[in-house]
Amino acid sequence: MSIVKPFRGLRPKPEYAKDIASPPYDVLNAKEARAIVEKNPNSFLRVNKAELEFDDNVDQYSDEVYQKGKDNLQRLSALGLMEREASPCFYLYRITMDGNSQTGLVALNSVDEYDRGLIKKHEHTRPEKVNDRANHIEYLGAQVGPVFSTFRYDKSIAEQFKRLTAVEPFINFVADDGILHELWIIKNEADVNGIIKAFDNLPHTYIADGHHRSQSASEVCRRAKAKNRNHTGDENYNYFLNVLFPDTELNILPYNRVVNDLNGLTVEQILEKASEKFEVSEVDEEISPKELHTFGLYINGRWYLLRPKEGTFDPNDPTGSIDAAILGNNFIDPILDISDPKTDKRINFVGGIRGTQELVKLVDSGEYKLAFSLYSTSIKQLLDVADAGQVMPPKSTWFEPKLRSGLVVNLLDW
User: Fold this and answer.
1) Is pLDDT at 414 greater than 80 in this prediction?
2) pLDDT tens readout for residues 128-161
């Protein structure tokens, strides 16, 4: 079974939705966030990334930063820009980019199901990031950034989504990046119960993006249970804010890599060592790989196409056959001596939405010495890894479009 629970969401009034809804807190740095807020002081970035209002020397994990986020959330309600539903409901959230749409259910999911592995994950989490978001939730008394999840296509759910979105959406706006966001409020008791029943038939759901947000919700629940002598299991802190999309509609873009040194090697030595595990051929144009197990390497102003040689990976290994793992195990680790890309400061990652031109720009500027372009991981690969109980290689999926924060907030009602 997969529990989905309706709730009394706090959301913008339709006329303020475009101004309030913001990108997720973790896809922008403070400088980029400040630029948005300067143009739009009602941006939800002031809630989920409140450090933008402080000098860079202020600890972003300090109490004063969390308190500022809380103050800014309360401000949006006090000004009448956001309002809370009178009764529990679901929401359907559709995002359309480049003519492709994905429609997901905004609901609360069970922390207990997450803790027991019924909500499957594919990433490890870092304690400091979990603690940050847990503190953020506690200070605000609200979950403000939804987890992005998926489920295997289900005909009954698809039919309900189609029927319920056949009417005009309650919220409808095109963001500054040209992406359309639509939101429907599902209040009818029969419709709510129909959704609950349909999801109850799913054996599992899967976290696509938001492992730290879901783990932080689990941490908040643990803390709250320890403090509450009258804990029942029905409290809002036993659930976390989620948006669940069918796997057939999700779009994963490549997650490219840039490295800031050559590990003491020359370009010629790099290419020579690469040829031991890859077929290497120079090409005259930027490489955006068009098929699985092909890579682009940009170094010294030139592009090279890399194809892994037979025996360099096990095609039957759900994790080891993912391109990020192939590249890491056969190039980035043995040649560049980067064994832990999550913590090594010599490597950075560039979302595929920025294109290969961003890789060229970063290398040609001298900030980085070489770049890799990858083919995108498929949703099937992600689900296979999760079903096998394994962990995806770091930074191997870039979901696009991103959910907007602030469209629906879950207040915890301490």
Assistant:
1) no
2) 999 999 999 999 999 999 999 999 999 999 999 9
Taking alpha carbons only, the member of 307, 334, 332 closest to residue 394 is 332
Q: For residue 6, with 0-12 CB atoms within 10 Å meaning exposed, 13-18 middle and 19 or more buried, which class applies?
A: buried
Domain boundaries, the chain: 4-251+401-411, 255-375
The per-residue b/e assignment along 166-199, b for 16 or more CB within 10 angstroms, e otherwise, is eeebebebebeeebbbbbbbbeeeeebebbbebb
**pLDDT digits 0-9 by tens, 70-122:** 999 999 999 999 999 999 999 999 999 999 999 999 999 999 999 999 999 99
Which residues are registered as beta bridge partners of 68?
none
User: What separation in angstroms does the CA of 90 have from each of 7, 10, 24, 93, 340?
Assistant: 7, 12, 21, 10, 40
The model's pTM is 0.91
Kindly provide the b/e burial profile for residues 369-388, where b requires at least 16 CB atoms within 10 angstroms of the residue's own CB: bbbbbbbbbebebbbbbbee
pLDDT at 28: 85
Amino acid at 298: Y
Tell me: pLDDT of 377 over 90: yes
Residue showing tokens 């090409």: 283
CATH of 255-375 among 3.30.1760, 3.30.1460, 1.10.3470, 3.40.1130: 3.30.1760
What is the C-alpha separation between 339 and 343, in angstroms, rounded? Answer: 9
Locate 141 and state its tokens.
Answer: 């008394």
Q: Output the average pLDDT for the chain.
A: 95
Alpha helices for 93-210 (secondary structure H): 111-115, 127-140, 155-164, 189-200
> Of 339, 310, 322, nearest to 381 (Cα)?
322
3-state secondary structure of 351: strand
**DSSP for residue 375:** P
